[in-house]
Design brief:
Oligomer: single chain
CATH topology of the largest domain: Rossmann fold
CATH class of the largest domain: Alpha Beta
Number of domains: 2
Number of strands: 6
CATH architecture of the largest domain: 3-Layer(aba) Sandwich
Radius of gyration: 18 Å
Shape: globular
Helix content: 40-55%
Structural class: alpha/beta
Largest sheet: 6 strands, parallel
Amino acid sequence: MTELLSHPTSWTGASAILFDLDGVLTPTATVHEQAWQELFESYLATQPQVPGYRESDYFDHIDGKPRFDGVRDFLASRGIVLPEGPTDDDPAHTTVQGLGNRKNRIFNDIVSSGVEPFEGSVRFIEAVLAQGLKVAVVSSSRNAPAVLKAAGLSDRFPVVVDGVVAAAEGLPGKPSPATYDYAARLLELPSEECVVVEDAVSGVQAGHAGSFHSVIGVDRGAGRQTLLDAGATLVVNDLKELL
């Protein structure tokens, strides 16, 4: 049995690991970033009076949030307010929902050829399961089940709390801890026995805002100190460092 020895105080007494998906288990965070950039570069080309899309915009306004919150927050950064539109609005429409659905279409087009999970994350999941801990995925994305299937990870996670579940249950998105708390309830465990693993600032903030055992930050670009400042208990570059 593989032992988790690198940071023993982070695991003592834990009964479950609650994983974010994009950027933690799969490299799809970069796909999301690419899809957002394509969406907003195209949209802002029709708004020459406002600043164009910058690489920093993803981490400053979008990363880790539910899709439509990301649309609203980015637009707000440019002083733009658009009509909401219906949830199933046409991706061609210039509404919050329309832009969000356009981004989703771009994302799905990119990942349709398959997703390769992070090797270190797969090894970590196997080690966690071998020790008898429970696991769940908690993602703001509405595409989480499709991404897990494309990555060959669906069978590891009987509990998935994604954007669809959050909307159906009326749960606020990250940085609220509500979706992580809900996953703990589905695992029939108190939050205090669950470790949160996140790469996004808003996700780390969600873990820090709740009463969780600990919050592990995975630095895939947000920055180690930024994640620590957001409330991470410790930060690693890859989950294999915890083996």
